[in-house]
Amino acid sequence: MFQNAARPRGRPRSFDERDALEKATQVFWSRGYDGVTIDDLVAGMGVGRPSLYSVFGDKRTLFLRVLKDYAEKKSALVAKALLSPQTLRDSLTRFLKQAVEIATEKGCARGCLLVCVAPLVDDAEVREFLQNGAAAAAALVEGRFRDAIIAGEVPSDFPVAVRASQVLDLARGLTMRAQLGTPRKTLLRDAEEAVDLVLLSRRRASK
User: Fold this and answer.
1) Which residues does 61 contact at the CB level (< 8 Å), separation at least 6?
2) What is the pTM for the complete model shown?
3) What Å distances lie between residue 76 and 34, 53, 101, 141, 156, CA to CA?
4) How far are the Cα atoms of 21, 24, 61, 172 from residue 27, in angstroms, in the given order?
């Protein structure tokens, strides 16, 4: 007599939520936030309009979820590149090359959702999210420099905060150049050479 009560209500989902979220990422990445309509998302994600609203919410809510999911994945890659047991030079080179690889990944729109799309969105929550993410990234790079000071790889007076900002600026610059169509090979070469500038001693840099 209780069989009917035990049945789940509604139809089971006919799509994979994680896969749909990945597809939404590509839609926003390739078209920008303002250029995307609900119809674009429905077509790109392969879900019906009712399912999109019930599972992901409206366009803004979906974008915030996409942004946070994308940032989590990228943060994990950044941490792995910087904190793996290797020399400071190798860590920085891996970090900058990784920025290039993400920005030129085959099958994806060129650039980066956090660098090329999200900053153009006029939304207070998006801006706060980006600011917090930038601060966290800077702290991670600064921590890597401080570890290098302890290990004797750079002098004790190494300008940690300034050079960390420069590293992040270089990563953003490489990403934006990728969006403009600069070949991956060129960007990878430039990423490796940029590390020499970051590690330049203060004495040599002031000449």
Assistant:
1) none
2) 0.83
3) 28, 29, 15, 13, 28
4) 10, 5, 15, 21
For residue 91, which of 158, 171, 185, 201 has the smallest C-alpha distance?
A: 171
Cα 23 from Cα 21, distance rounded (Å): 5
Question: One-letter amino acid identity for 50?
Answer: P
In the chain the first and final C-alpha atoms are separated, in Å, by 88
Rounded Cα gap, residues 139 and 84, in angstroms: 16
* pLDDT tens, N- to C-terminus, the chain (207 residues): 334 444 444 444 566 888 999 999 999 988 999 999 999 999 999 999 998 999 999 999 999 999 999 999 988 988 888 888 889 999 999 999 999 999 998 877 888 999 999 999 999 999 999 999 999 999 999 999 999 999 999 999 999 999 999 999 999 999 999 999 999 999 999 999 999 989 986 555 444
